[in-house]
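Shipment paperwork, digital attachment
Item: protein structure file
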Amino acid sequence: MKYEIIGQTVPAVEISLASGESVYTQSGGMTWQTDGLSMKTNARGGLKKTLGRMFSGESLFMVSYTAEKEGAKVAFAATMPGVILPVDLSGGKTLIAQKGAFLCAEQSVDLSVTFTKKLSAGFFGGEGFILEKLSGNGIAFLEVDGDMIEKELAPGEVLKVDSGNVVAFDSTVSYEIETVKGLGNILFGGEGLFLTKLTGPGKVILQTLNLSSFLGSIASGNTD
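Attachment content:
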């Protein structure tokens, strides 16, 4: 599989497949394609994984595109201005991502759901307590809103982030929710009641565009 990320404001990844190679995305995720591709829609992974995707905010069904001739191409575009991030999961690597971050992947990549270790993280974290787990042996593509920031956390190192700015993190990073301290900070700090607390070791991927805050600004008419 070969790929090229094209475009700058709202980028797309165009994937060139050898005959017999296949990639999958959520329903409605394809942007354009050439001749020589077969399309198959199914509930990838069975009922359990299908229901899990529903709760994580992804489509119930996944669509696979398989090349029937050499060099057939299919493209998947971001839904917001930002970055498309290729992630190599070879070597048994596992990545935990926020719901909605998954764009597409090779068939050898498994997409499933996972729960935060503490239930409080789900009820108060702002992004839900169901996260997506990417594993297997292949390349997956994630959608990052705005600019992408990578942090490498040392063992025990803590990073506190607004939940909407978290894209993904290594499975070695622990994830929980921390209450903002101080009544004045809660009432007037503008950051809400809770922050996501990420503790190393491992890599953390952040995005500068918080979709919830962005949509809230549009709804309130405050776009300055």
